[in-house]
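Researcher: Let's do a round of design. I'm pasting the structure tokens now; please hold your answer until I've finished.
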């Protein structure tokens, strides 16, 4: 966030964010008009799997965060797996007697 706040203009922020590989919607002008500021952008637009790249870019190494991101990545991957097939046992009415 500090790296973004240190940029001299919103256009410079746009180029930095784009060059870091973040998806940026619209043109530079649209980005400048809608730029919410660094804190709001990080809160709303940065996903957990992007944290390692951001931390590397700003020179932060934290194995605890890396481990948490790996856990989140595993959960995200598992969320795309199809649910397990469950066999439903339905009692048969054949051969039942009416008494």
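Researcher: That's everything. Go ahead.
Model: Designed sequence:
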């Amino acid at each position: 966030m500090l790296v973004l706040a240190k940029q001299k203009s919103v256009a410079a922020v746009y180029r930095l964010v784009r060059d870091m590989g973040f998806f940026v919607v619209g043109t530079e002008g649209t980005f400048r008009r809608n730029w919410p500021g660094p804190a709001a952008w990080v809160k709303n637009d940065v996903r957990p799997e992007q944290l390692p790249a951001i931390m590397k870019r700003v020179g932060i190494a934290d194995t605890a965060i890396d481990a948490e991101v790996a856990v989140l990545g595993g959960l995200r991957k598992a969320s795309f797996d199809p649910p397990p097939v469950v066999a439903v046992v339905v009692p048969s009415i054949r051969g039942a007697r009416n008494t």
